[in-house]
Automatic annotation (TrEMBL):
One of its GO terms (cellular component) is cytoplasm. IMP binds at residues 13-16, 38-41, 128, 142, 223, 238, 302. CDD domains: AdSS. Binds 1 Mg(2+) ion per subunit. It comes from Streptomyces pluripotens. The keyword S-adenosyl-L-methionine does not apply. The gene is purA. It catalyses: IMP + L-aspartate + GTP = N(6)-(1,2-dicarboxyethyl)-AMP + GDP + phosphate + 2 H(+). The active site is at 13 (proton acceptor), 41 (proton donor), 139. Pathway: Purine metabolism; AMP biosynthesis via de novo pathway; AMP from IMP: step 1/2. This is Adenylosuccinate synthetase. Plays an important role in the de novo pathway of purine nucleotide biosynthesis. Catalyzes the first committed step in the biosynthesis of AMP from IMP. Homodimer. Substrate binds at residues 298-304. Transmembrane segments: none annotated.
Amino acid sequence: MPALVLLGAQWGDEGKGKATDLLGGSVDYVVRYQGGNNAGHTVVVGDQKYALHLLPSGILSPGCTPVIGNGVVVDPSVLLSELSGLNERGVDTSKLLISGNAHIITPYNVTVDKVTERFLGKRKIGTTGRGIGPTYADKINRVGIRVQDLYDESILTQKVEAALDVKNQVLTKLYNRRAIAVGQVVEELLGYAEQIEPYVADTVLVLNQALEDDKVVLFEGGQGTLLDIDHGTYPFVTSSNPTAGGACTGAGVGPTKISRVIGILKAYTTRVGAGPFPTELFDEDGEALRRIGGERGVTTGRDRRCGWFDAVIARYATRVNGLTDFFLTKLDVLTGWEQIPVCVAYEVDGKRVEELPYSQTDFHHAKPVYETLPGWSEDITKAKSFSDLPKNAQNYVKALEEMSGAPISAIGVGPGRDETIEINSFL
Ligand code: GDP
Ligand code: IMO
Ligand code: MG
């Protein structure tokens, strides 16, 4: 059996955690392949609510092996505190596997993230401040520290020296900060080594063997398509590839193994941080979406920017990810609107465009062209099948499906595991 990818089709926070958790009971492995603790995945199981940042959402399903792939950036202190937080709540985390090739977010990467943002002033990206960009920059610059380096003190010291060589010049001379001592960083990192060691594994080998043995592997994306470093709204993006191809590089699994790519799609749109957002609302509707949808960041506590559904973005996500299905989330949040506008195209400098403009300038100028669909007022949170939905809600879903270019195979009508309408099975 196959490998499935589950990823965000918009700007993150689409409900990936809930969707992953829902499938977690039926899959053997759940793998994070990119990003780090910039993610905030909320999972609601019964009356328990979990906020996961670095750990794969599959960690809450007892039969499932959670894996942190080579493409992830790992902050060891966050990892250990997330694990102990779950242990305190009775969650068994002993099956976790972490790639020895995953890069470590060091304390200086976090410092550089914060000072860079401050230096950028009003041009800032609005990062989560977790050191994500600087850690990936070190990886690409070949001065990164990997999980396996924690087990060779001499190599670790040399690598930290190499990484701090230039950084300390920049920190002291450009940013007016104190230099960071190599010894202090090495000591801190070595302090985590022993606790992490039991989890470290050759995850590429493990996952490929699992696939050969017909196990089911689910790759769980962090962030979303429009935050992708290559395919997102650059430079207002994260520093990794949440898009489907990232699952292959970030876990060491070939594209021929992947049989299904599920895009998680919110029934409206949100974004955290800076950058263009054509359907953003600055009025009472935006405020109502934020309030009803509980649109506040799980990681940074920032209010999320809110707007109507954007079909241009959904089509784009279908294309760049090769989506086979959508999981539409938070349909219940739209209950009560008499009319619901949906963006079907953009107007860019007086011309109608159907697809996402590749030019950043054009995208910044894009104005939404709306079609208005009739809303519904009935409570839909108890709906178990598509036919339980009011006619107008059914028509809203069908319209989104038609515009977005892939079948909607599941619909979220509430945050809980069971508040889901399954249309086509994912497995
Ligand atoms: P993620 O980062 O993609 O995992 O999403 P977040 O957890 O950051 O944000 C999604 C929020 O919506 C969480 O609070 C979820 O509990 C909640 N959620 C997920 N699906 C649904 C749904 O269908 N309806 C409602 N009302 N809430 C949902
Ligand atoms: P999940 O997995 C929403 C955004 C930040 C910022 C940009 C770069 O919960 O969907 P970074 O710290 O990654 O360098 O910040 O990306 N961002 C997210 N927005 N959901 C996320 O994760 C995000 N992770 C990063 O707000 O705009
Ligand atoms: Mg989130």
